[in-house]
Structures are given as structure tokens and as C-alpha cells.
Specification:
single chain; about 280 residues; alpha/beta; 3-stranded antiparallel sheet
Length: about 280
């Protein structure tokens, strides 16, 4: 497996996409995943071309393109067409995989544990249409266990089965399962059956019996999480990575950091820890 860093890991620095490529190179990563790109007022197509050229010159591969999406709260056909244009951006960036969200769920059901089946056909329609288009570009698409509503493993697996396309898979994020109060080991065991990309991250944890500590956010069941340096939190990172390796997956594994320590020190610490596992 090759190790990349998510551009999101540097968001605390409020730096440019180009500066994030430089940091990835300086810190020793082989690749960088772009969680959105930020062209500002510039044309996105031309910006993506410049970003690709800059990464090539720096010797950093763009490993994946990750974007937001919502097939429930937006018109599904309009969202499909929007995401096809994002597939075109992914092609310019030179990636072979692209992750998009399915939905954060209806506003009043974001944390709901019921009702997912009602929306599953709509989510499957959107994901199927996008991956069929991406297939013509040689790009595989995926959803991530992300966003509370489509986060627990049985829901993501249900979507995998509903789409039923070998061009569509799962971006397995070993830490995000905790946001839905699911044991990462149990969830990763399911996810590796559909894996086409991997994220590793870690969290500090506080039980719902206490008030939300400063800097933490609430899980679906009201427990509390805060991003940590990889290896310092409660995610069983070593066992999860071993499970991913044993599944036969040999693609990119991407470090994602969202803690309070500066990424300038936290990200290299995480990379050192991950290298020992890979």
C-alpha cells in the first residue's frame, strides 16, 4: 500500500491547495487526496489542470478526489449531473478513484436510526448513475462511512448491494464508525468486502454521561469525540490496518487528521505511526 495525506488534514492552517502539496512532499507522503479543491473565482477546470501540473512537478501523486453530495435534500437528477462534472475534474486530476457522499439525511432525520430503507432507492439511483458515467472515464466511485446518516456499516453495505456495480465501492474510514457509535473492528470487517480506498484517523473519546468537553463533538448516541494524532486515541488502528491488508487490498491508505494540535506536528507523528503498520 502507498500512503497519502488528505488535504483536509491541513485545513486548520488555511493554506492553499498548492501549499498543501508542498507540505505533503516535505512530510514524506507519496500522495495527497483532495477533499474538494478551492479555485475561488477561477475556472475549476483550468484550476484542476494547474493543480495536477504542480503535483506532478513536485513528485506527489493525487491519490483520490473527495467531494460532498446529497441525493436526498437536492434534486437527484440535478445532483447526478453536477457530480458528472466533478468526475470530469477527477479525470483532469489524474485519479482513478473518486468519493462522493450519498446524503446527510433529511434535516429532521440526520441522527435517526430508522427510515433509511425509505430513501435507499433514491441513493442507489444517484450513485449508480454517477458510477456508470465515471466508468467511461476509467474512474471508480465510492461513498464513505460519513455524515451520521449513511455512516454505520449495515447502511453502507445496503447501499453497496443496492447499486450492485463493480465500479462502485466503499471508502473505508476506520475512525468514522465511532461517529455512529459502532465498533470499528466489527465495521471494518464488513467494509473490506467492498473497499476501493482507505482512510485512517483517530479520536479521543468521552462518554455521554459527561457534558460535551471543549473541542469535542457529539456522536449519534450522544457520546463525544475529538480528533487525535493517529495512534493516540481509542481507534484500534493497528488491528484495523491489519484487517485491511489481510483483505487483499493494496491501494492507497490515507491519513486524515482533524485534531486540535497543529498539523505541522500532528501529521508527521501520525505518518511515523502509520509507516510502522504498513
Amino acid at each position: 500500500m502507498k500512503i497519502a495525506v488528505s488535504s483536509y488534514s491541513y485545513s486548520q492552517l488555511k493554506n492553499s491547495d498548492f501549499e498543501r502539496i508542498d507540505l505533503a512532499k516535505q512530510m514524506g507522503f507519496e500522495g495527497i487526496e483532495f477533499a474538494e479543491i478551492n479555485p475561488g473565482d477561477r475556472d475549476k477546470v483550468e484550476y484542476a489542470k494547474e493543480l495536477k501540473a504542480y503535483a506532478d512537478k513536485a513528485g506527489v501523486e493525487i491519490s483520490n478526489y473527495a467531494i460532498g453530495a446529497d441525493f436526498i435534500n437536492r434534486d437527484v437528477d440535478g445532483e447526478i449531473e453536477r457530480l458528472k462534472k466533478e468526475v470530469d475534474i477527477a479525470e483532469i486530476l489524474g485519479v482513478k478513484t473518486m468519493r462522493h457522499d450519498a446524503s446527510g439525511g433529511p434535516e429532521n432525520e440526520r441522527f435517526s436510526k430508522t427510515g433509511f430503507e425509505k430513501y435507499l432507492p433514491v441513493l442507489a439511483k444517484g450513485c449508480k448513475a454517477v458510477t456508470e458515467y465515471a466508468k467511461t472515464k476509467g474512474i471508480k466511485t465510492s461513498v464513505e462511512n460519513h455524515g451520521f446518516y449513511c455512516q454505520q456499516s449495515d447502511r453502507v453495505e445496503a447501499l453497496m448491494k443496492a447499486v450492485d456495480d463493480d465500479n462502485f465501492g466503499w471508502l473505508v474510514d476506520i475512525g468514522n464508525f465511532l461517529c455512529a457509535d459502532e465498533n470499528p473492528l466489527d465495521a471494518v470487517k464488513v467494509g473490506v468486502n467492498y473497499i476501493i480506498y482507505a482512510h485512517v484517523k483517530d479520536f479521543y473519546y468521552a462518554d455521554r454521561s459527561v457534558e460535551t468537553p471543549d473541542g469535542y463533538f457529539d456522536t449519534r448516541d450522544g457520546n463525544h469525540l475529538c480528533g487525535s494524532v493517529l495512534g493516540d486515541g481509542i481507534v484500534p488502528v493497528e488491528k484495523c490496518v491489519e484487517m485491511i491488508k489481510n483483505s487483499g487490498y493494496d491501494g492507497w491508505i490515507t491519513l486524515e487528521y482533524e485534531g486540535r494540535e497543529t498539523p505541522l506536528t500532528a501529521v508527521p507523528k501520525g505518518l511515523d505511526f502509520l509507516k510502522k503498520l504498513i
